[in-house]
Each structure stands twice: as structure tokens, then as C-alpha cells.
Predict the structure.
Amino acid sequence: MVTSEDLKILPDKPGVYLMKDADGNVLYVGKAVSLKNRVRSYFQSSRNLSLRIQSMVKQVDRVEYITTDSEVEALVLECNLIKEKRPKYNIRLRDDKQYPWVKVTLQETYPQVYITRSLKQDGSKYYGPYTNVTALRDTVKLLRQIFPLRDCRYDLDRERVPRPCLNYHIKRCLAPCAGMVSSVTYREMIRQVCLFLEGRQGELAERLKREMEEAAEKREYEKAAVLRDRLRHVQAIMEKQKVVSETPEDLDVFGIAQDRAGSVVQVFQVREGKLVGREYFILPEGEESSLSEVLEEFITRYYDGSAFIPKEILLPVDLEGRESIAEWLGRQRGSKVKLRIPKKGDKLQLVEMARENAGILLEQERNREKQRQNYVTEILEELQNVLEMNRIPQRIEGFDISNIQGTDAVASMVVFEDGMPKGSDYRRFKIRTVEGPNDFAMMQEAVRRRFRKGLEERQHVATENGKFAKFPDLLLIDGGKGQLSAVMEVLEELGLTHLYVIGLAKQEEEIFLPHREEPIRLSRRSQALMLLQRVRDEAHRFAVTYHKSLRTKRTLSSGLDGVPGIGPKKKQALMKRFGSLKRIREASVEELMQVPGISQELAEAVKEHLS
């Protein structure tokens, strides 16, 4: 627990603080000009804190801090720690998954361009984030139509192919894999792709026109024709873009709307005076946090890792750390960045348009949520009636087993709440006590461990804090009578026969209930059955994924067993670099030596062992 003595020793310097609970989990990461003043403000009884922060402070057991030389350094460190720790109470640009980005692997001689959900400090450029995945895929598809980019995932700095694929012959790729194009020519095309992704189509069009004319003057007519077609595509896109500024400038425009349930941030991307893109983000922070607070934290997450930052950003409200954020953005851009709150003129109209759009999107989102909730309630009520339950099954847990003849046996537990998967509550079990192919006993072990742990947590910790303490309204087992009977034996042993349990058999999609001879058969169009199938299939997917990962690790481990000097860490490093035992076997000694910790002696030993 944080005491007054802890608060007294805080330094009056800029830095980053980490709020942690009793288990050491990071609840919140924040930056401050003065750690002493900022952290103490959370624990002053007279302080008017938002409900979200009040909830967090109640859980704080200790505060750790790192001092920095400036507020900007604190901001950089804060961004890195949030990405690493993923604290519960910080704003993150996430829904169920990380928002997608377009990745350009500039660290490669022949860069790739593809969609990713993972940002890494690997020398690549990332464009995004994007909220409309369909539109993003269409954009990448259009890029491949305009530019003959390679879509293979070969590491061309290490390997080549004997002949190019079909894409080369239909002029959809320049075939760098087979050495058919120089790196200089290919990287010039990649520079054009980056201009396109940055929304600077005007600059790209001018460059293409200049190159086309130069090619024509040199009588390189085939090259000029290719550039002409590329220019026409870009000009066609530019014609569809709306002019919103009389001056050809690059801007990002932010608008924000809030209600009690959350916020929506609208971002307009203006390039060369034209509106080239718009994205919106739904955040859980509502009216308990100020617009300024939400927007400031959002902006640092939005631009962290971004490949392009405009030199001017328009805001609807002022930010407490506006100057330090501007300096931080300027460092990333390589030149000065202005954060402005316009008071009049066209730029004020842009901000008002973004704010108005944010309000409309917030209202639409609430209407969609209401419609979805009504739809889900109808499905759950149907399920309640079909299974003759005394309450709506708001929380459903599904179990499945995956193994091959008893080896690498695992079980999965997935959770659906209000008809939607809740990934944070998923659990997986490595089967410990069962030998050989006995699915019934494996299912018993998984269910026994899950509920035994839940009962222990209910005795020692608050119900809402335990990982297993929350019990399901409905327990779904993948299988028929046999699997269901095996699970019921475990529940009787634990005194939990009051739980509702069903088995869902795959072949006929029959629903089996305890102490009932005949199964329930629902129409294949029944929404209640479809929900049960989703839970069953998700449990199966989660179990199979875990089983495959264990099998892959075991295969690699056994393949490298007996090599002197190769322990678990070096095996993991080799697997991370090459991906499979086959590729390790095919790698040269020099390539093996590029893996951290692998000396020439070790690399030669690996080659000799695998050959």
C-alpha cells in the first residue's frame, strides 16, 4: 500500500511512474514534469479524480518511477513502457486485436509491402493505423496493380529462386527473387509506394511525369509507357479526392466526441490540400475523463511508430503537454511540428467538421450497440428456453482436447460473454496425468483443474479478482454422451452439479444434456445452435493452435538434442530465426552464425548433427 512516506521521497524531476497492484501487475504508466507533484495528486483526498482513475487508485499497492532529463524523454519512455507492459488503465488503440498497418521492410535490399498487426523496431516503415480493414486491403490490392511489387516472403538477402513465378510473366512483379531487376530500380519504385501511402499523390504524379519524359527523351519507350500507365492510375485517384484547403499543405485534423460510455476520435488526413483519408477510433474512456486528457493520450499512441507525421496538426482542444508532444513529434519527423487550436478560417471549419463527424459516429456506434444487444438477448433467451435454464447464459465456457495418439496432449477453455468471445479469459492446459489416447480422461483433468482452482480462489480472494473464480452460466463440452458423462463425474466430485452442462456432438450437431436420453436437435438455421457452434469451434481452434506449437517445439528440440553447447535458449533462437528444422538443416554455417550465441564451432556441430 502506498504510504505518505512513499510520497515524500518522490523526486521533483521529470520522469515516468508505474502504478502496480499487489500482484505486481502494471495498472497505469504515466509521464510527469514533476514526479512528486503528479503522483501525489492521485492520493489527495480533496482531488477531483475521474471514476476510472478512482477505480485504479483503489488497486494501487506501490508506485515505481524512472527519472529522465526532460519531459520529452519521459514521453518517449512512457510510449515504450505502454507497448511493453500494456497497462489496463492506459488508452490503447485496440479493439479485439491490434489495428492493422501497412509495413514496408526498408531494411531489406528488395523491400516487401504487406499488412501487419505487429509493430517492431526493425528498420521498417509503418503506415497507419487503419480501422477499415476492407478499405486497407483494397488499397494494398490497388498498390499491387499500379506497382509491380513482389508478394513473396523470401528473405532475398539470403536466398534466391532459380526462376521467377507467374507474376513476373504477367508483368505483376519485377522478379527480384531471380535477380531480374537491380536493387536501385526496385528501391526507387518503393520510394514511390511510400509517397502514395503518405497521401502525397501530387508529388508522386510530378515525379512519375518527370521520369516518363526523361525516358521518352532517351527513346526508352517501353519504360515510358509503363510510367505513363502508372501516372494515369495516380491521377485518377487524385480526381476523386476532395479539396479542403486552398493551400497545398499537409495536415492531420482531430475531432472528438464523448458520452458516459466512451469516446470517438475522428482523424482527417489532408495531404497537399486534399482530404485523402479518414479514420475513427472508439475508446472506452468516457465523460469521467476530460476531452483534453483523452486526446493527449490518444495522440501519443496514434503517432508512436508512424512513418509519416505532417508538419501541422489541428486540435479541437488544448493539451496540457502540447509543447512536449510537439517536440517529440518533431524529433520523429526530423523537422518542426506545430500543434494548433484554430480560432477562425478554413482550419477552424476543418476541426468543426471532424468534431461533427465524431459526434455522428458516436451516435451510430451507440445505435449499433443497442441493436446488437437486442439481437444477442434474443439468441440467449432462445438458448435459455431450449435448454430449460432458469437464467440467461450470459457467460459460456467451452472445452476441447487436442492430441495425436496421446502425445502433446492439451486442453483449451474459451469464454463467451453476451455472445462474444472474451479472449482475456481464455485458458489452456497441458495434460499432465493421462498417458495414451484417452480423450475422456483428458477432458476430466482439464475440467477438474479449472474448477478446483476456481473453488480455491473463491475461498481466498475476492470473486472478481480470481482468474478462475468466475463460474459459467453454461459449460459446453465438445462431444457426445461419453464426454458429457466424464465431465459430470468431475462436477459431482467437486460438488458442482448445479452447473448447467451440455455436450455438442459434431456429426449431427446434437445437443446432449445430463440425465436425458434423447438429444436435442435444433434447426441448422437456429441462431442459438450457431452460437453454440461458434463456442465449440473456437475451443477447437484454440486447442489445436496450442497443440501445434508444442509439437513444433518438441520436434525442433528433439532434432537438436545431442548437439554439445545447444541448450533451450539457443534452440529457441534458432527456431525464431529459421522457423523449422528443415530450414536449419538447409542453412549454411555462415547463416547459422548470424544467430545470437551461435559460434562457428557450434554452427559446424549443428550442421554435422543434422546431416
Q: What stands out?
A: The two ends are 59 Å apart (CA to CA). The CA atoms of residues 106 and 124 lie 5 Å apart. The mean pLDDT is 87. The longest strand covers residues 407-417.
